[in-house]
Design a protein that fits this description.
mainly alpha
């Protein structure tokens, strides 16, 4: 009886992994990495950072823009981790997760209309971009000698 139970669990694990793989195979990347950066990540991070620099959102419309930018930034980080986009499973994933985490925190701050919490994230947003660029875009951010 115990062997049948273990066998059943094994079968369920294999079926689950196969289904997850099939779902992942249904994705259809459209843009290149540069297009994702230029059309999603850079504008979203810029919107958040410029709003912080200008003293934070001043009305509901500006808070909504920061929320939208934060969601775009967070989901862009998830896109960077997709199979076929991730450059490696080490630093790339670590940097992408950092982007998702800080953007999710910016989203929560914007949703709560907490200007202080949003402002406190400025350095982390910048660091998530710079850390990745130092690693993967040395022509933009050369490594220190």
């Amino acid at each position: 009886m115990r062997i049948i139970g273990l066998f059943s669990i094994g079968v369920l694990l294999v079926v689950g992994a196969t289904m997850a793989q099939a779902q992942q195979d249904q994705t259809q990347p459209v843009g290149t990495m540069m297009e994702i950066m230029a059309s999603m990540i850079h504008p979203a991070s810029n919107e958040i950072l410029l709003t912080i620099t200008r003293g934070g959102p001043q009305n509901d419309k500006e808070w909504a823009l920061v929320q939208r930018s934060a969601v775009t930034l967070a989901e862009s980080g998830n896109l960077l981790m997709m199979r076929g986009r991730a450059r490696d499973q080490g630093e790339w994933i670590k940097d992408s997760k950092m982007l998702v985490d800080v953007a999710a925190a910016a989203y929560r701050a914007a949703k709560a209309k907490d200007a202080n919490a949003l402002a406190a994230l400025s350095g982390q947003i910048d660091a998530s971009c710079v850390n990745c660029h130092k690693q993967y875009r040395p022509n933009v951010h050369p490594k220190a000698p």
